[in-house]
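thought: fold this chain, then report.
action: predict
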Amino acid sequence: LMRRFGILYQSGALWSSMTLSENVALPLEQYTKMSRAEIKQQVSLKLALVGLAEVAERRPHEISGGQAQRAALARALAPHPEVLLLDEPDNYLDVPGKQWLERELRRTSKSVLLVSHDRALLNNVVDRTLALEEGGWVGEYAGGYDDWLWQRAQLEDEQRAQPEDAVVRPAVEA
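observation:
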């Protein structure tokens, strides 16, 4: 199962005792049958993709927070997962880093589950919003965050326009 998923944790979760290259190589060593040479090549490609080729042999404490987040993304992408699970992927990224992330997410053909509080990121990259509010399921909506707000307002307006006894409230599954 882990071979099918690439995970980017909110904090990046890089191993501090390992270089960036070693961090990116870890899932390849654990979950693939690639040779050492193939792993080395894949690590170089992924670190270059995220703009970190020149700092590949540094440890996480020797780089910026944005660089660490990009290294964690390289690690998530390294094994060519079918699905990316991204928790606040734009944490610590500067404006060019966020723009790069948006471009890459729009370009990918992978399924992506993206958790974010960044309204601009959500508007620019998602095609479906699954909304949770106050610990509960609110609904599924086409489009980004602003689309969700608009669709939700439309539904509330329709419900307000109906007599109280005619309002149908969606069932919430536990």
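thought: worth noting. Residues 10 and 89 are 6 Å apart (CA to CA).
final: tokens above.
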